[in-house]
Write a structure and sequence with these properties.
Elements (H helix, E strand, L loop, with lengths): L1 E4 L33 H12 L16 E4 L5 H9 L5 E5 L11 E5 L12 E7 L8 H10 L1 E10 L2 E6 L10 H15 L10 H8 L2 E4 L4 E3 L7 H25 L8 H22 L1 E4 L1
Parallel strand pairs: 2-3, 2-5, 3-4, 5-6
Antiparallel strand pairs: 1-6, 1-8, 7-10, 9-10
Helix pairs in contact: 3-5, 4-7, 6-7
Length: 290
């Protein structure tokens, strides 16, 4: 997660997610573009677990003015913040806006966060989750946030940071099918201009743009129920269930453009990753960093 304030605040970076459309979507399945679904509402619940029930971490005052939700997905967060702060005008943007009936203080717009924004509003709070899969030019995005943030306003990003990791040091490398698949997927995304380690560069980029008092925090997001705490077990159960389905439906397509592996090697790698997670997930203790 990332929190930034132009004048007196901090930045935080942290990872802490019936039918397929009811699964956890934006947190993991949005690694590839697909239509919005009720998965993203489940993802919203996972983030609430991660944030101890809060919609945000920024220390917002009582009267912050307008709020922007970039990449709003199903609109779950935008709807929740509009209800929590009825005095604020909330704008949610996405490439494919959700079909919802918004309250009077919420407006949903079709807009690409990765291109110049076609609105002039100055916001007291800019929020986003899981934008990495759609941003090709992070410095430009951060500049747009700066230009659309009123003095003293806050920006908060919550996003994934690759690679996949394992608590077991012996498995925290390409000997693990899951971690090897993640490395191949990452180089495929890089060929498309997507940087899945962009969060590691946020601090420097934000400071260069003029944001001050930057603070960052990294938290693991378990895959499976191996963690000790009850919230992490719950998160791990949800992410594990979703990720196995994600691998089955999109694992091969994500690495399809890799030029170094044959078609058979790609199929084998996906199968190895699924087997690794199913059979050894509890002992190797896989996780993502957000």
């Amino acid at each position: 997660m990332v929190l930034i304030n132009q004048s007196s605040g901090y930045l935080m970076l942290r990872p802490d997610a019936t039918t397929e459309q009811e699964r956890l979507g934006q947190s993991l399945a949005r690694l590839v573009r697909r239509p919005h679904s009720r998965e993203q509402d489940l993802q919203h619940q996972v983030w609430l677990l991660s944030l101890n029930g809060r919609l945000y971490q920024a220390p917002l005052g009582d009267h912050i003015g307008a709020i922007l939700d970039l990449g709003c997905g199903t609109g779950a967060w935008a709807l929740a913040i509009a209800k929590e702060r009825p005095e604020s005008q909330v704008i949610g943007t996405d490439l494919t806006p959700p079909t919802i009936t918004p309250p009077e203080n919420l407006c949903i717009l079709e807009s690409d966060a990765d291109k110049p924004w076609d609105f002039d509003t100055k916001f007291g709070f800019i929020h986003s989750r899981m934008l990495t899969s759609g941003i090709h030019d992070w410095p430009a995005l951060l500049s747009r946030c700066w230009d659309h943030l009123r003095p003293g306003g806050w920006v908060e990003f919550l996003d994934v940071c690759h690679p996949f990791r394992a608590q077991d040091p012996a498995a925290d490398n390409d000997s693990s099918g899951l971690i090897k698949w993640g490395h191949v997927a990452e180089r495929c995304w890089a060929r498309q201009g997507l940087d899945y380690r962009a969060t590691e560069k946020h601090r420097e980029r934000l400071q260069e743009r003029g944001f001050i008092n930057v603070r960052e925090e990294k938290v693991r997001w378990p895959l499976g129920e191996w963690a000790d705490s009850v919230p992490e077990k719950h998160i791990g159960r949800l992410t594990m269930d979703n990720f196995l389905t994600f691998m089955a439906t999109a694992g091969e397509s994500i690495i399809d453009q890799d030029p170094w592996l044959s078609a058979q090697e790609k199929r084998t790698l996906v199968a190895d990753a699924q087997k690794d997670l199913k059979e050894h997930g509890h002992s190797k203790q896989f996780y993502l960093t957000m």
